[in-house]
Amino acid sequence: MTDSVYGIDLGTTYSVIARINDLDQAEVLLNNDSSPTTPSVVYFESDSNAVVGAEAKRSQLRDPDNACSLIKRNMGTVYPLDFRGQKHTPESISALILKELVKIANSESGEQVSKVVITVPAYFGIQEREATKQAGQIAGLDVVGIVTEPVAAALSLRIRGEQPETVLVYDLGGGTFDTTVIRAESGKIEVVAIDGNRTLGGADWDEALAQLITNEFVEQAGLGDNNPRLDAEFEAELLGQAEDTKKSLTKKEKATVRCRYEDRDEQVTVTRAQFQAATRHLVNQTIEISQRVVATAERKVPGLKVDRVLLVGGSSNMPMIEAALREQLGWNPTKTQLDLAVAKGAAIYGQAAIDEVISTDGEEPGIAPDAEEKYYLGGSKTLKLTNALSRGLGVEFVRPDSDEKYVSFIMHANDAIPARSPKIKARTVADRQTAVLIVLYEQTGERESEVPTDNKHLRDRELPIPSLPKGSPIELTLEVTAEGLARVTAYDPTGGQSVNVEAQVSVLSKDEVDLATGVVSGISLRS
User: Fold this and answer.
1) Cα angle, residue 520 at apex, residues 515 and 523 outer, rounded to 5°
2) What is the pTM of this model?
3) Given pLDDT bands bounded at 50, 70 and 90, which one contains residue 505?
4) What distance in Å separates the CA atoms of residue 62 and residue 51, rounded to the nearest whole number?
5) What is the pLDDT of residue 465?
């Protein structure tokens, strides 16, 4: 290997870092607690000192106002935070988590980590992906790539036999849910269809279980309409117990929880059956999304059949998940290293890129005459990766008869990427028009909508044109990279002017990234 790239699964509830070791194998690095997973929780002891991980999670229970968790759910959004008088964003909080993971890797490997690949949910849009990349930059890292979690999981599981195979990756993490249909064969991975929910994950099962425990306690203790969850001390203890109880119910049919409130002290028993009933609506959401992604894949590839279903993400370990997939969909899912597969795959993706044996531009990767088989690629010499667009992309147009603005989608969710659209012919809408405003939108709902406010405004830019009569031609072209970043080129054939509208945008400007970098670099991390 010429260089080392570390793969980071920046998770909603837990994060993991991995690398390709000297044996050409992907391995996860253990933190100071000898655990492969680090809680994605930051606790601020002061404005210049923070703790990340298990201790931060414990501190959050007693002092929630100075702790932050589940921040991934807010990536790419305007979500200002304030801890100990210091302003933060989802990107800067994520940067602190990344710094802790790199600290772990530096200690374990004896190397100075600089190059990383960070994973994102497959359905993350352009702003969320760019925000994730900026989090790495704020942490002082060279982010050589962003790869989706299902692709990373597929890479780590070596689903690349000599015969083509179609795999559905069911990824239920702590705070997000992804489904992806992938076609794989030796040296090739093609993403066919993706779907998911950025606000559905194990944390929602924890909340449902916390409420179930509370209901049982209220009835057992005779509290009537009194809601103990309004008490900060009770709530903090409850939330800590809910996750532990969820894990117990994965292995046992029932679990006992001690609940204390005012003068009440009760042992509450919760059964697995009760937990399953309380969360059936959550499971059904994942079933609906899984059915939807398969239907999308079948429309794209007539006759497609899913050969294997892979369970990824720690929350997929709940027995109700496997049971629902078997009973409702007739699938026989295969469990993986649920918590670790994604980070390992990110390391594989990054090492393949650095070793220059991966292609994501639609071309077959070249093979040098002396190329060696890569163990971390399952014996292949090269890897070709074809991705899919997570959400549709469109440009704003004006109806000439009513001046009504609408969005026309040029590329659609699950289109293969990288891609370049054919030239789109547009026309000016007024006489003596001297500029055309190019506005790029991204789909936000499950279905495309022509209504501009139903979509996410990404960026706009003016194309200056000579004074032209109404109906003069304007040409538009949309390009999308393999990582899902977009650029619209607008061209005026009359005046010969062109302008690019790039959608590699985040909520943070360059100045704000520089400011956040300074803030994060000034915070020391205590393990």
Assistant:
1) 135
2) 0.85
3) low
4) 14
5) 83
